[in-house]
Task: structure prediction
Amino acid sequence: MLAPDPGVSQDLKRFVYVINSLANPDRLYVEAAANVPMRIAAHNAGHSPLTATHRPWRLVAVVQFGNEGTAQRFEKFLKSSSGRAFIKHHFV
Result:
């Protein structure tokens, strides 16, 4: 799914991803994680209480970061009103 970046240690790699509900297309979910395929599978299996009622989900965007701090800041931005506008303009 995602090709590893040879310049980033696999132990430190973090992703921020955006998923969109197919059942409710206006519903987006943003999260930072180290293993995006595993997290999307968990969302679609109903293992995440915040996303279980809006299944199934499709991946909209993934952004890779070299450290967790930067990923967390970007995740926080995407969850803001400006970030939601950014998602709709650039990803959806």
